[in-house]
Amino acid sequence: MSRSHSVPDRDGARGDIRGTARYVQVRQTGKGAVLSFRIERYDAMGNRLRPVGAEFTHYQSGQLDDGDEVEVSGRWSRGTLLAKNATNLSTGARIHGSATSEKVVTAAGLTFFALFMLFVLAGIFAGAVVG
Length: 131
Fold this sequence. Notes:
Largest sheet: 5 strands, mixed, barrel
Shape: elongated
Distance between the termini: 77 Å
Order of helices and strands: EEEEEEEH
Radius of gyration: 22 Å
Helix content: 10-25%
Strand order of the largest sheet: 1-2-3-6-5
C-alpha cells in the first residue's frame, strides 16, 4: 500500500486520496460553509480499505454527490483529510473554496478599517483634551 493511501500517524502531513465519495453534506459554521464527506477506497486486489473522512472548509462551489469518484489532496488533522484541492472525477467538476488572496485582502481591509477608527478616536480624544 502506498503512503498516499494510508492515514498518517502525525497531524500536518500531506495526503492525496482517490476513491468514492459517500455521505456528502454541506454544513454552515461561523466561518462559512464546510463540505464534508467520506472517501471509500479499495486496494488493487479489490479489498476494501479503511474509509477516510474529508472536509473542504470555506466551500463555495463545485458539485459532489454520493457515489462520485473523487480525488482529494490536503493535510491530515486528527485522522481527517482537510482538503486544499478536490476534483470530482465523475463529472470533471473542481471544488472551490475561498482563495487565499481573498483572505489576505479581507484581513488587510479589516486592519485598515481598525487603524482608521483608531485615528478618528485619537482625534476626538485629542480635541476633548485640548478643549
